[in-house]
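Hi P.,

Sorry for the delay on this. The queue was packed all week, but I finally got your sequence through. Input first:
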Amino acid sequence: MAIAWNDSMSTGVTEIDNQHKELIGMLNSLSDTMRSGKGKDEIEKILLFAGDYAQKHFECEEQYFVDYDCPAGPENKAGHDYFLTRFTELMGDFHQQGGSFALVMKIYTELSNWLIQHILGVDTKLRTVVEARKR
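Then the structure:
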């Protein structure tokens, strides 16, 4: 169930790639915590930290898209806005319904799928402009 980083996820920006690895690590930590049967409080700490980290990461990444004048910038920003809205909804569900295995699994699956799809489908578009600048 763990997510593994691979070179196809590279954006060409070490800082962003390292942040992506950190986000993947947080999701893997959520999976481990959930599977080991740890309580709601422990799961909530990971989720809140991941949400805060994601928001800071998005700001940093969006600036790189601007700095490199990447045409996918608006698509990237829209994806981040969607994620933050959806994350807020999922956290609302978590607080209302509690930390049931089914709900935490749903949150993990949705966040993991979004992250991987976003990195591979949008973030990696930055690599093209970064590499073009290096030439």
